[in-house]
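Shift notes (night). Ran Glutathione S-transferase domain protein while the centrifuge was going.
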Amino acid sequence: MITLYHHPLCAHSRFVRLLLGEYGIEPRLIEEDSFERRRDFLILDPAGQTPVLIEHPSVVVPGAATIAEYFDETRGVSLGKHRLLPEDPLSRVEVRRLSDWFGQKFFREVTDWLVTEKVYKRFRPRERGGGAPDMDLVRAARANIRTHLRYIEYLAGGRKWLAGERLSHADLAAAAQLSCVDFLGDVPWEDYETAKLWYSKVKSRPAFRSLLADRLPGMSPAPVYADLDF
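Came back to this:
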């Protein structure tokens, strides 16, 4: 069985969970707080960051982008016309470009600040970065997300999916980031109908079900988080 070290609100881990869901794989999930710097986890990945996937003892694959490439190389052909990374080079460039946009730029400007300030700080002791949220960072993230939603509107308005005519890594990367923000109730869906319609398509896929069931001790998700007709 495939094992995935993750955190429920680690957007990169969520991307991998969506990816595995599209391959019909239900992994064994092990929750990991990277701030603990556990020795056994650092042996698996010296970077000490989630996600880390283990297919068997000799195959340890760290990092969301690396995991996505590994699965395309080892199983991508099996998906046929539903392959998540296109065959032709230029289409692959666009998927990788957008996957990086959401996995890096969106994460730095939105998800990281919101999840760190509203979740991680709440559950960690002060000596490990816990404490009260920095509301300036929360406000900055809430402003930044509007730029990204406008970009999603632009992409989704002219294409069936974000990178083209079929679902790809780009959609999963974007949806993974947005799902964390949606959990916290910080996505202004009412102002971005096209982005909302695209997200509802991804959210309705079977691969998304496990994410919608995620809960954190003492924290309830936003009311629309698990609603497919939000």
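The chain has two domains: 3-79, 89-205. Strands lie at 3-6, 28-31, 52-56, 59-62.
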